[in-house]
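Subject: sequence -> structure tokens, single chain

Hey, anyone have a minute? Need the predicted structure for the following. Not urgent.
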Amino acid sequence: MTIYGATRRDTAFVEVLAWKAATTATYSKLVEEAMFTGSSIDELLNELHGLGVPIGGVSLKWRLEREIYTLETDVCRWIDLTDRRSISALRALIGSWHSQPVTASILTGDQRQVTTRIAETLRTCGLLRPDGTHTTASGIKYASKFGTLGNDDHCWAQWLDAYNTGATITYSEPMDPADPDVIEAVKHTGCFVP
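Reply:
Had a minute. Here:
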């Protein structure tokens, strides 16, 4: 089992909402529809959102089913996924992926089969200590593909041995569209949050 998180709340929201944002192709079609009906794109989007159609965003039901959690974890030993040494070690372990060398863009890409295989490999191999011995890693840390706001801003995937182990929820709250961190994520993703 794996749990995903980020060191900053706004980064966690960006990671979640970016996948729900409309693409340029979607907006192009909506602009054509707005022109055809004689309305503005904003009027059309407001009408669709009013009907519960999550164009370029999430539905109210989706938002109400989610919360943001603050977790306390055991001492974590992370593998920095985009560290040059990690990439070199992965190249030595698996070589390439479909004839492409392992790079940071492949490691943080959208192909779940790739990222899952890489994570499984890293979980099996663990960390190499300076004395040459191996130890188990807690998971991986990586920069958000949507950008970071400094050195302490990273995402992580923690591997758990069993359900409800390795992390404790210390605080939770509903996802609120008026939350400053949600507003910041909306600015960066363009994702509508009702």
